[in-house]
Amino acid sequence: MEDITAYQNEIDAIVAARGQSEAELERLDREAAPAYEALGRKAYELVGFLPAEQRNQLATEMVRVDEYASKIAGLRQGITRGAERVDELEQLIRAEQERAAREAEERERAEAAAREAESVAQSEQTEQIQPEADQAAEAKAPVDDDARICPVCGERILKNFRFCPGCAGKVEELFPPEQPAVPPVTHKECPQCHKQWDDEMNFCADCGVPLIEVRG
Length: 216
Hints:
By secondary structure, this protein is mostly helical. It is built from three helices and five strands, in the order ααββαβββ. The chain has helices spanning 2-45, 52-140, 171-174; strands spanning 148-149, 156-157, 186-189, 196-197, 212-215.
């Protein structure tokens, strides 16, 4: 970017100098026109034999004209060279801008590739760590499938333990034997007079209506 700034500064200087040269060229053109006119008039008037004084005057006018012509030619050449240099500098600026754009694009691709590589590495590391963690958890877990969970502290209690390793509770108290289920008592009852009758009876002996089976 520093080269571009230098190129642009030189272009600005050339443009400013060209403006001054064009202004000087315009001034010389205005001053040269009367000199050309006077020279032509004197040359026409002094055709033939000229006295020494007139020859000297003519020579002086011709020197002035030559000076104007030389300055004008130099200014025109300077303007032309300045325009060519401006074109060259503009090409250099475009080339520098294109190079900077390519470098920025290459840096962006390199950064994207680095981010992708880092993401892949993290994924591979995670995939490698997870099986190790699962294996460690499996190795730490007891292999006894008959282990029970303590209802007090949540610790695993193997089948050969008499006390909980977490709260020291007795296993027989933590896990009392289940009582066998007692079937409910059933009897037959009259839905009208609500008298109870033997299970073998189907109708109420007082009301004559069908008996219903009642539990409890």
